């Protein structure tokens, strides 16, 4: 269109997946633009904090295989960035081994690790207490330590993919909000609060705000937004440290009864550790409704659990905040990833990634989004994640 800036690929959303896509598209010679409403390095429209859980294991074998495929891509990113991003402090899952949770299920995950020949160490409740400083765990609790898991350096990753995108010539524009898309047979017109652009393909990596662009085209995907609590606690001494841990428990009438925690960050001088409840309750309608103030009951639930089971930590919060979790309405889905073909008119020109706990897949997701934009397909098995695939049919 006359007066429009023209690109091959426009990425909406400058978070980790959007920046990974922008970097990898530009590295393949594509004229690429990444737009972010709030500016880069913000933590307003997705989960926040300095670290994320890195794990290989999934209860779902297709996702497990994707993490195995992601690992060498993390190593390549670390090499290019000259910075360690995965810190292998271990991934500890324990609790009721048969309970189904939003993180998966322990017993079935162990069976999948056996099938895929991924190493782990099975542990009893007493092993976990003796080795990692937990206390008063129910006798039937059990679990495993997967030693290759641990923690991902979030801000290091963002700096790496931003810098690589910039180095490859990707155009990065923050503080510019996309107002609408007009796909047609030959490409997409993208309207923002500042400009109008034309491109062959659009990649939507804008998480919580994806429906604001899909709805005017006649489609909404089923996502839920939760403002979840984050709590920092003080270690009581230097003699105990933790791997990443997640406790699987039967839900209560009020919440999912799931908690997680990190050890001391290897890159941080702080003695504080971060923990959180994973309570998918009281969804909000819009990312702009977040307040940054956690539900006091959720903080108290976590503090009480720590007071009973983690004597190495002071259960009194040293700080508390929130993060926005963007999750599929159907927990069996995990992610939306694929072309918007069949969702909106001329959807073959729109690549969609939204929702789920996706940070561990950042380098792979960027690659997949570029594959889909350039060829409409990818070598990775994402068939179950396609936006048009009902999950009951995919099981």
Automatic annotation (TrEMBL):
Question: Carries keyword Aminoacyl-tRNA synthetase?
Answer: no
Query: A Pfam family for this UniProt protein?
Result: DAO
Question: Under the GO molecular function aspect, what terms does this record hold?
Answer: flavin adenine dinucleotide binding; sarcosine oxidase activity
Annotated ranges, domain FAD dependent oxidoreductase: 8-372
Keyword annotations for this protein, in alphabetical order, are:
FAD, Flavoprotein, Oxidoreductase
Q: What domain of life does the UniProt record list for this protein's source?
A: Bacteria
User: Which cofactor is essential here?
Assistant: FAD
InterPro entries assigned to the protein according to its UniProt record, in alphabetical order: FAD-dep_OxRdtase, FAD/NAD-bd_sf, MTOX
* Species for this entry: Micromonospora craniellae
Q: Which SUPFAM superfamilies does the record match to this protein?
A: FAD/NAD(P)-binding domain
**What name does the UniProt record give this protein?**
FAD-dependent oxidoreductase
